[in-house]
Specification:
alpha+beta; about 190 residues
Length: about 190
């Protein structure tokens, strides 16, 4: 015996997906724009996608490094550029998700759902690779306890992107099953 699904269940799933999308966008905007990509912002250490400041004992203040000084410290120019591309590229792709999501819901178009899934998959891979590359190149100056709110926001956004990817992959199937059960119950 099957349990009947409420008529509003597909709409509730869709609203949940839209809410998660808005949450991910807000987290990415907070971490990458509001916090300027800084994953650690302490009085004696500031490390981010565009700032690399270490405490200088001689001067008694933060000294910010640029390339080629960073290459002397062991930070690859290409690696840091790829990390930036990954993190900020994930933000750009995630900003494109709501419109095809709304169009897919309104038009019941499977192709638009696949576009949303593609955007979310690429955004998730870009964010994970960008964050991973950044941590690989800066780990000798970082520890887990030094990572700040920017890192927490990016990590949460990554987890929610994975959840969104799973939800958008499953949602069209659930919506189709609900439509099929609704049409068979109306025929009976």
């Amino acid at each position: 015996m099957t349990v009947p699904m409420p008529k509003q269940a597909p709409q509730l799933l869709f609203v949940g997906i839209l809410t998660l999308t808005a949450t991910v966008i807000c987290l990415l905007l907070y971490a990458l724009l509001w916090k300027a990509g800084n994953l650690t912002d302490l009085p004696n250490l500031r490390l981010g996608f565009y700032s690399f400041c270490l405490w200088d004992e001689g001067m008694g203040s933060l000294q910010c490094h640029q390339f080629p000084e960073l290459e002397d410290l062991g930070v690859s120019r290409v690696g840091l550029a790829l990390a930036r591309l990954g993190a900020y590229g994930a933000l750009v792709l995630t900003l494109f998700v709501p419109l095809p999501l709304l169009l897919a819901q309104c038009n019941s178009n499977e192709g638009e759902w696949q576009l949303v899934v593609g955007f979310l998959a690429v955004a998730s891979m870009l964010l994970a690779s960008g964050l991973g590359l950044f941590l690989i190149y800066t780990w000798k100056w970082l520890s887990l306890s030094l990572l700040g709110p920017g890192f927490i926001a990016l990590s949460t956004a990554q987890a929610l992107l994975i959840l969104l990817l799973m939800a958008t992959t499953v949602f069209p199937q659930k919506a189709e099953q609900a439509r099929a059960s609704l049409s068979t119950s109306l025929r009976a």
